[in-house]
Amino acid sequence: xxxxxxxxxxxxxxxxxxxxxxxxxxxxxxxxxxxxxxxxxxxxxxxxxxxxxxxxxxxxxxxxxxxxxxxxxxxxxxxxxxxxxxxxxxxxxxxxxxxxxxxxxxxxxxxxxxxxxxxxxxxxxxxxxxxxxxxxxxxxxxxxxxxxxxxxxxxxxxxxxxxxxxxxxxxxxxxxxxxxxxxxxxxxxxxxxxxxxxxxxxxxxxxxxxxxxxxxxxxxxxxxxxxxxxxxxxxxxxxxxxxxxxxxxxxxxxxxxxxxxxxxxxxxxxxxxxxxxxxxxxxxxxxxxxxxxxxxxxxxxxxxxxxxxxxxxxxxxxxxxxxxxxxxxxxxxxxxxxxxxxxxxxxxxxxxxxxxxxxxxxxxxxxxxxxxxxxxxxxxxxxxxxxxxxxxxxxxxxxxxxxxxxxxxxxxxxxxxxxxxxxxxxxxxxxxxxxxxxxxxxxxxxxxxxxxxxxxxxxxxxx
Length: 463
Ligand code: ZN
Ligand code: MN
Fold this sequence. Notes:
Blueprint: E1 4-15, H1 55-67, E2 71-72, E3 75-76, E4 79-82, E5 92-95, E6 102-111, E7 120-133, E8 137-141, E9 144-148, E10 155-161, H2 168-185, E11 197-207, E12 217-220, H3 225-244, E13 252-257, E14 262-268, E15 278-279, E16 286-287, H4 290-298, H5 304-313, H6 318-326, H7 330-340, H8 344-350, H9 358-370, H10 375-387, H11 392-401, H12 404-417, H13 419-427, H14 432-444, H15 450-461
Parallel strand pairs: 12-13
Antiparallel strand pairs: 1-10, 1-11, 2-6, 3-16, 4-5, 4-15, 6-7, 7-10, 8-9, 11-12, 13-14
Helix pairs in contact: 2-3, 5-6, 10-11, 12-14, 12-15, 14-15
Residues 21, 24, 26, 39-40, 42-43, 153 line the site of zinc ion.
């Protein structure tokens, strides 16, 4: 048996959430709109119209390329990529071929391959990042095919990686990190299911230790992180079987069929497409300056990987950091911990509870830390905080005198022996509360704080 290692490269299209389209003033949010209503002569490619570059897309493109460790080209230029397809009214796509936004990048991704396993790390070089416009959509119906041009001219950021990933899990981790990066930058919704983030993968198998890569197969149509991993897993098994039985891999494009759980050949890729790229004569080149670039670089401190590192440095276990990031709470947590010098682990445990505002949470965390409260005492303080209109640092003194669990038990007991009292209270006879208070305080024989007992009783009566 030959020892085989997969090599995977990705080509990703990120739909930018700019206000208007890439080269015209059309609304860039065409989701759910009637087909062919979010179009204009520019994005429909009418003769005589002129495109104008969206400066928001230019800025976001550069920021994304910086986040991916690329060298930014201060001189960028658009080119025409010529091909014919019914969803492309101009007969060419405006893209960047010769002078893209950025090149020669790299990012290192740390991730948890499986729960219970150790943190793993890999580096992916980024070949290029460039801006381009999207095409329309073909809609296949029973007796033909319709075209919806609403998506024409939507700004896209294309990211091409070097073939540096060596397992489907790494490819998935890369896509997830990319999603976090563009969401952190606020430049895309990056929802794979909705097509904001589209990925094609090329995968080949090589003999272990060999620098000679195997025949490339391109995989398409993987519209979720799960499908990326599944489709690549399937392809690894399929190609391994072909090679082990002495066969040759065909250079081709295959589409993932989720229902069937297989990839199917779409077309063989023997010859190279010639798009006859040439400079777009209707658009001036983009010229950036170093000052601007330095400004954007300085804004990149809170990228997802940096946040994970901070979380670990603040004493959180790595798996907890991952959990918090998955749930979308890590950035907020780090911000709070840094701003108020809080205990990160304590903050992580209490962050997602319901608080009236951030100040209340911070007060609570500081009170718990300063008084070295046990976790059960902290839980009691939390209960007091949400039932009373006082702040945690005022309530903490009640804790010693107050055993909340005991009060609650007595309250429930008294309510059980006087079921009619609750009915009366709910009918509006509020003064029954005086009778109940007397019963409860008598039973507690002075151990409970009256204010606490009253608010607890009221909350039980209105339940
Ligand atoms: Zn338009
Ligand atoms: Mn493209």
